[in-house]
Amino acid sequence: MRCFLSCREGAAASEMALLLPLALLLMFTAFEAGHYMYQDHQVFKGLRDGARFAARHSFDDINCRNGSAYIDSALVGEVKNLVRTGQISGGNARVTGWADGDIAVSVTCPSATEAETGIYETSEPAPQVNISTSFNYDSLFNGLGVITNSASLGGAQQATVMGF
Hints:
This protein is of the alpha+beta class. Helix content is about 40%, strand content about 15%.
């Protein structure tokens, strides 16, 4: 019995067997967290690009004339596609599972006091383009690395129309 208790030939294998599940969990969690952060960055990058693109359109396409917000419907389609794919038409989605229906584009008009204090003419106050999105995250390992498909990605971006 003394010979059996003092034998250390299988110690490394048993330690590896005990640590391997924890090491794999940590590895998959790190990969999943990195993938989530990359996807989140792509979403914010798309929202920022879309708001900047919309803000550089003329006041004929986006305006606050007659006290109501207006945005051209063709421009809304282009903005949604640019946000999602990085291109005005066509292209593949930056993030898996991100659809045009997940993106909302709206326009808000400044109040009378805001229009008088801004840098734009008071006869036609500059509208603000608002773009937002929210959709389910497509997990890299389907929950093996802690973050599951129940997590969501989303964000919002605003830009004042410059009327070029």
